[in-house]
Design brief:
alpha+beta; three-stranded mixed β-sheet; three-stranded antiparallel β-sheet; 10 strands; 27% helix; rod-shaped
Length: 265
C-alpha cells in the first residue's frame, strides 16, 4: 500500500492559493529507459570462420561484403568452373581408359597356358602376378590382394616394356659371374626357378629345384649316373672354374656324367 502525504506551505490569501499548483498528478505507466554510451575502439567478432574454395579459378560473382548479414545457403561467390570441368572430364576419360586397359590385360592373361618356355609371350606377365603369392608364403606373410597385384603388374609392364606380350627369354635369366643366359622355368612349376622382381623387369634366378640326378642300372647291374646343377659344383667361390661351368648345360636342359667312383664292400 502506497501512502502519500502532501504538505503544503504558503502565504497570502486563499484566492492566491487556488491559482498556485505545486504538484501534478499523473497515472503511472511503464516506459523505456534509453541508455547510450559514447566510446571509441575496435569491434571484434566473437567467432570467425575462414571460407576457402576447394577449387581455384577466376571469381565471376561476389555476393557479399564485409559486415553483411548472411544465412545458410546464401551464395557468397561463384568461380569460373571451366577449368574444374575440364579436369573432371579428363579424369573421367583417364578412368575409362584405365578400365579398358585392365579388361584387355585380363583377356591377355586368360590366354596363358601356364608354360614358361623361351618363346612364351604370356609367361612374363603371368609370373609377375603369381610371384607375390609364393614370396608371401616363403616369408610367412598374409596373402596379398590379387586385384592389387594385377593392377601393379599392368602398370609395371607398361612403364618397363610398354607392352604385355614379351618373350620369356627376354625376361628370365640365369646369372653366374659375368655370364647371363636366358633360362626356361618359373615359380611353382616342374622346372622350378625363383627370381625376385627388379626395377628393370629382368628376373635373375636365385633359387629353385636346380639339382637333377638321373641314375640308371642296366640288365647286368651296371650303374650309370648323369646330373646337372644350375649353380655348378662350386656355388659360392667365384674364382673356381666350376662356378659357372654348368650354366650352358643347365639352360639347354642337358645332363652330364656324374663324376664319382665309390666302391661299396
Amino acid at each position: 500500500m502506497l501512502l502519500t502525504n502532501y504538505v503544503l506551505y504558503g502565504c497570502g490569501s486563499s484566492d492566491e492559493a487556488k491559482d498556485t499548483q505545486f504538484y501534478k498528478k499523473q497515472q503511472t505507466t511503464p516506459q523505456t529507459l534509453e541508455v547510450s554510451i559514447d566510446a571509441s575502439g575496435v569491434i571484434e567478432a566473437i567467432s570467425s570462420v575462414e571460407i576457402k574454395s576447394k577449387a581455384s579459378g577466376e571469381v565471376l560473382y561476389l555476393g557479399a561484403e564485409v559486415g553483411d548479414f548472411i544465412q545458410k545457403g546464401y551464395l557468397l561467390a561463384q568461380i569460373d568452373q571451366r577449368t574444374a570441368n575440364n579436369i573432371l572430364d579428363q579424369t573421367k576419360s583417364d578412368l575409362e581408359a584405365a578400365n579398358v586397359r585392365l579388361v584387355n590385360a585380363q583377356k591377355f592373361l586368360e590366354q596363358w597356358d601356364l608354360g614358361t618356355n623361351h618363346n612364351n609371350m604370356h609367361a612374363a606377365f603371368g609370373v609377375c602376378i603369381v610371384s607375390p603369392e609364393w614370396l608371401a608364403e616363403i616369408k610367412r606373410e598374409p596373402q596379398p590382394d590379387p586385384i592389387e597385384i594385377f593392377k601393379n603388374c599392368v602398370d609395371e609392364f607398361e612403364q618397363t616394356f610398354n607392352k604385355l606380350d614379351i618373350n620369356w627369354s627376354e625376361v628370365s635369366f640365369l646369372e653366374r659371374g659375368e655370364k647371363m643366359l636366358p633360362v626356361q622355368g618359373g615359380p611353382d612349376v616342374l622346372r622350378a626357378i625363383y627370381s625376385p622382381r627388379s626395377d628393370d623387369g629382368i628376373l635373375k634366378a636365385v633359387a629353385g629345384d636346380g639339382l637333377y640326378i638321373y641314375v640308371n642300372w642296366d640288365k647286368s647291374g651296371v650303374q650309370t649316373s648323369e646330373s646337372i646343377h644350375q649353380f655348378g659344383s662350386s656355388s659360392t667361390v667365384k674364382e673356381s672354374p666350376h662356378y659357372d661351368d654348368q650354366m650352358e648345360l643347365f639352360v639347354g636342359e642337358k645332363l652330364k656324367n656324374t663324376f664319382f667312383n665309390i666302391e661299396i664292400d
